[in-house]
Every structure is written in C-alpha cells, then in structure tokens.
Amino acid sequence: MTFPDIISDLRVRTPALRGRLVPNQPLAELTWFRVGGPAQLLFMPEDEQDLSYFLAHLPPEIPVTVIGLGSNLIVRDGGVPGVVIRLGRGFSNVVAEPGQRIRAGAAVPDVKVARAAQDAGIAGLAFFRGIPGAIGGALRMNGGAYGGETKDVLVAARGVDRTGRTRVFSNAEMQYSYRNCGVPDDVIFTEALFQGSAGDPAIITAEMDKITESRETTQPIKSRTGGSTFKNPPGHKAWQLIDAAGCRGLTIRAAQVSELHCNFLINRGGANAADIETLGETVRSRVREISGVELEWEIKRIGAERG
Ligand SMILES: Cc1cc2nc3c(=O)[nH]c(=O)nc-3n(C[C@H](O)[C@H](O)[C@H](O)COP(=O)(O)OP(=O)(O)OC[C@H]3O[C@@H](n4cnc5c(N)ncnc54)[C@H](O)[C@@H]3O)c2cc1C
C-alpha cells in the first residue's frame, strides 16, 4: 500500500529544513516485531532546532507520531498516516556530568546510558541495561527493569510540542506512574538528565553482568517481539494470569505466545500485525473469562488496520 504524497507541499513550507523526509517509508524494518505498513512520511530531524522548525511549519491537521527503536510497538498493517518522526544522530550524545549525572539524547539506546554510568562509576542506572529501547521511549513509558525505573533517576526531560515549542519537564511534571507518563502525547522528548550516586565500578559491572545473564535466560530477546505485552494488573503478574488461562504457546498463524515468557508475543516469521493483535486480544478475553481480570496493553499500537 502507498499513501498520497504530502512531501511536495511540506518542502515548500519548510525551505530551511535540514533533516531527511522519506515518503512511504516501510516501518516494519524499524520495529522489533517486523510487522506493519509504511509511514506516510518519515521525518528524521538533524537536531532539536530542526525538529522545532518542522513542527512549527507543519499544518495542524497532519497527525504526528514519534517512534524510538520500536521495541514496544505494533505498527498496524495499514501503515501510519501523517508524519512519523524518528530521532537519530543529532540526539545521540551521552555524557557524564559532575555530581554523578548523565545527560543523554533521546535517541541514545538505554544500554549506552547504563554503560556511560558504569564507565563514570555512577551507580543507580544499571537497570537501563535490561531495556532494549532508546531514552525517548524510556521517558514516555517510564521504562523499568530489575527494581529500577526511569522515574527513580530522572532529574528533568526536554521536549518539543506539536507547535514546535521547546519545553522542559521536571521529574514531578512528568507525572509518572507504572509504565506511564502524564506529559501530553504530542510532546517529543529530545533529552534527559539522570541522577545517580557514587558507585564502585566493579560492583556496577557485576550488576550489569547479572542483568545480561538473567535476560538471556528468562526472555526471548533474540525473537521478534515487543517485550511485555500487558501491564501487570494491581496485585497480579500478567504472565501468571496468562499461564493460568492456558495461553502459554497459543498460536494464531505465525503469531505465538512465547513458551519461555508468556507475557511476550512473538512473530515466528510471516505474521502480520493483525495476527499479533488478534492473538493479544484472544489472550485478553481468555484471561477475562478465567480470572475476571482485564489486562491492559503495555505495547503501543499505532496506525490503521488494512482497509
Ligand atoms: C525483548 C524485550 C524486552 C523488554 N524488556 C523491558 C523491560 O524490562 N522493561 C521495560 O520497561 N520495557 C521493556 N521492553 C519494552 C521497551 O523496550 C520499552 O518500553 C522501551 O522503553 C521502548 O523504547 P523504544 O525506543 O523502543 O520506543 P518505541 O517502542 O519506539 O515507542 C514506545 C512508545 O514511546 C514513544 N516514544 C518513543 N520515543 C519517544 C520520544 N522521543 N518522545 C516521546 N515519545 C516517544 C512512542 O511514541 C511509543 O508510544 C522490552 C522490549 C523487548 C523487545
């Protein structure tokens, strides 16, 4: 499928744009599940100023969606209308600052933040080793693993809103809860400042090695997956409810509930987004029938179903 052209008009409106515009960019290759249709237009800004300029000149009726490393995403088969924004090189700096702080661009993979902290002898950020996304996704999802969460270490985040205005949010203004951020959805995060504490590099290294090992044995990290599919409902573990409902290994065409970790869905090769989403909804309804608990999607689903 292909979307109608919007690039010509946008080029006229944004003569000073420096970033790349790509019409009908397939998104499957930019996500872990490897499914879904194209973006009507993909925009990769050069830097924060370029992003602001673009958004300020983009007609308000054109929808904007931001993606990171696509590790928590199902892109639907009909693709994503409007503009999809993906941050790249201009947002990939990570530096240690005085006072056990790390400043990281939103395109920096979480694991690099963990490593930068390790190199600088900063404790408290090792949990980022366990999350395969980039910092923008961690800020939006309040990503967390192995007892740590983004909200525990964030000082402030910068972002740009749909009108192109640059904004700064303190930790409290992020209004964090479990895998959720209260900042309006139109805000695209560009940078984060994290606070750790003085740590012993050998202990931090041991902690990171433990996380690496544990992930490899408990999660299907080499599969096409989106990580935990559903949030843990209060007082429950999603995987236990899914297991109790008999869904471990459940398959719809090439989409399967992981045998290893049954809150993970897997594309075994050749599944489309509809297969994966239908499998997720089947799991939700079986869990509802068996335990009466309503599972809430943690994975974000974007775009349109195939018409
Ligand atoms: C094998 C595996 C294991 C995982 N384990 C964990 C885990 O232990 N803990 C955990 O928390 N998560 C885990 N996840 C899920 C995922 O890695 C996290 O949610 C991660 O934070 C998503 O980052 P991303 O860059 O991939 O974002 P994407 O998946 O691309 O996007 C996720 C959401 O973030 C938004 N977003 C992305 N970038 C920005 C930005 N710059 N500004 C504003 N919004 C943005 C998107 O619009 C979307 O709503 C796992 C996933 C996989 C595949």
Distance between the termini: 10 Å
Question: Structural class per helix/strand content?
Answer: alpha+beta
Tally of extended strands? 19
Q: Using only CA atoms, what is the Rg?
A: 20 Å
Element pattern in H and E: HEEHEEEEEHEHEEHEEEEHEHEEEHE
Low-confidence stretches: none
Instruction: Report the sheet-strand fraction.
Output: 25-35%
Mean pLDDT: 97
Task: List the ions, cofactors and other small molecules found in this model.
Answer: flavin-adenine dinucleotide
What does this structure look like?
There is one protein chain. The chain is an alpha+beta fold. The protein has eight helices and 19 strands. The strands form six sheets. Strands 6-7-13-11-12 form a five-stranded antiparallel beta sheet. A four-stranded mixed beta sheet has the order 1-2-5-3, with no helix packed on it. A hairpin with a 2-residue loop joins strand 16 (about 250) and strand 17. It is globular, with a radius of gyration of 20 Å. The N and C termini lie close together (about 10 Å). The structure holds flavin-adenine dinucleotide (FAD).
